[in-house]
Amino acid sequence: MEIIKNNNARAYYASVEQKSDGLYMTGSRAIAFLGIGDNLEEAERIAEEAVSSVKGKVFHRKDIGTKALIQKRVEHIKRIFS
């Protein structure tokens, strides 16, 4: 696939349509990118690199999978179970 140029990146499709000139998103949460690295920062960089190859008008949340958001979720769970 043209989008994934890094072997440590994976794309997962949900709501897309294949046309002769490429893939088109047909709804929200159409595609997810996963970066695989030795640490969270490297994995995030790889995923962001893959996301940057998407062309067109799309919305993308840069906070998903970040160290800050993961830590926020961990703290939330700690509060629930303490």
Descriptive report:
By secondary structure, the protein is of the alpha+beta class. About 30% of the residues lie in helices and about 20% in strands. The chain has two helices and four strands; from the N terminus they run E-E-E-E-H-H. The protein has helices at about 40-50, 65-80, and strands spanning about 10-15, 15-20, 20-25, 30-35. The strands form two sheets. It has a two-stranded antiparallel sheet with strand order 1-4. Strands 2-3 form a two-stranded antiparallel ribbon. The protein starts with 8 loop residues before the first strand and ends with a helix. The mean pLDDT is about 85.
Beta-strand content estimate: 15-25%
Structural class: alpha+beta
Overall shape: it is globular
What Rg is obtained from the alpha carbons, in whole angstroms? Answer: 15 Å
What descriptors fit this protein?
single chain, 82 residues, alpha+beta, two-stranded antiparallel ribbon, two-stranded antiparallel sheet, 4 strands
Short description:
With 82 residues, the chain is of the alpha+beta class. The chain is 32% helix and 22% strand.
Show the helix and strand layout:
Blueprint: E1 9-13, E2 16-19, E3 22-25, E4 31-35, H1 40-51, H2 67-80
